[in-house]
Amino acid sequence: MSDEATLQLPLLARVGHAQHCKICLQGLPSSQVDVDSARLALAFYCLGSLDLLNSLESRTNDFERQDWREWIWEQHTQGRYGTGFKPSSYMTPSHNLDNYTEFDAPHMITTYTALLSLSILKDDFSRLDRPGLLKFLRACQKDDGSFYTEPGQGGDSDIRTTYCAFAISSMLDDWSGIDVDRAIPYITACRTYEGGYGQSPFCEAQGGTTYCALASLYLAPSSSPIRGEPLTAQQRRQTIRWLVHNQGQSGGFHGRTEKEADACYCFWCGASLELLGAKDLVTTSALASFLARCQFKFGGIAKSPGEHPDPYHTYLSLAAISIHPPGPDTTTSTSWNIKPLDALINTTKETAEWARSHIPGQKIKS
Ligand SMILES: [Zn+2]
């Protein structure tokens, strides 16, 4: 960190990154060959990248956006355990449920990404079955406070699912679908001796799961006793120290102690520091320089320099730049200007505002 020389950053290849996401997105709705269980999540990373780059309007047309909205609504599925979104038209189920058809079980992570994708596409949510969504959340919560990914004891249950349940409740502005008092002790139990959080209790701390834990705690409703100050001063210091230590020599963050830097952890750790009010501890010039080197020459951002790009790492890199833009010690251009991010629900502030004003629906004031 020199205080004399300023670092000259290369351009952020906005057009190439937008093009990479557009190409990935175009294959999604109509592809009959690609049997991928996570296509709605992939759509979210593509649409989210275009949103962060402020390129959605310019790179896509009304017809395409309408087409994607319709495709997402086709995954809206209702049944005995409530309503949510299923991962894709071709999802292979891990189990059968009584009255969803074989391929139709809604999925917690998919439901979170579908709500965000529809918000990016400025859907009016007139088709959303809100009581069904609350019922779905209720059907997913386990006795230990965590959540299954699918209702009726289906799929994994770990802190990522807890985060999605909290984010959905927050966007709905209705917490009656989940038992927050039972969920919080589960999150607390995922905390490790290092100050990070693991995927479930007694697991090693990771950047991604630490973000999920902290964001859930900070999203918790005002009626919750931990709202505002979920960590003690000592815990907060310890978590900040662990997160800062994850920024390595390359400028990128690694997700676990002693691992290689990876672009996605620049978001998971960087957003966690933002939530803890410690964003000034990130060395932003080194971070930007690492992410610049992760850019693929034909567009898209990879997990590390020299690797192939994908929409997941492209989105999370852009989101990290949004929170931690290159500082005054760098010489850069407007190519690095990314739309501001809502670090709690992980979408642009503009999209978060759309979600919060359209997903709750019309409330009858008593
Ligand atoms: Zn990664």
Automatic annotation (TrEMBL):
Co-factor requirement: Zn(2+)
MF terms (GO), sorted A to Z: CAAX-protein geranylgeranyltransferase activity; metal ion binding
Entry keyword annotation includes Repeat: yes
InterPro entries: PGGT1B-like (IPR045089), Prenyltrans (IPR001330), Terpenoid_cyclase/PrenylTrfase (IPR008930)
Record-annotated Prenyltransferase alpha-alpha toroid domain positions: 13-334
Organism: Piloderma croceum (strain F 1598)
Record-level GO cellular component terms: CAAX-protein geranylgeranyltransferase complex
UniProt xrefs under Pfam families: Prenyltrans
Keyword set, alphabetical order: Metal-binding, Prenyltransferase, Repeat, Transferase, Zinc
Protein name: Prenyltransferase alpha-alpha toroid domain-containing protein
Family: Belongs to the protein prenyltransferase subunit beta family.
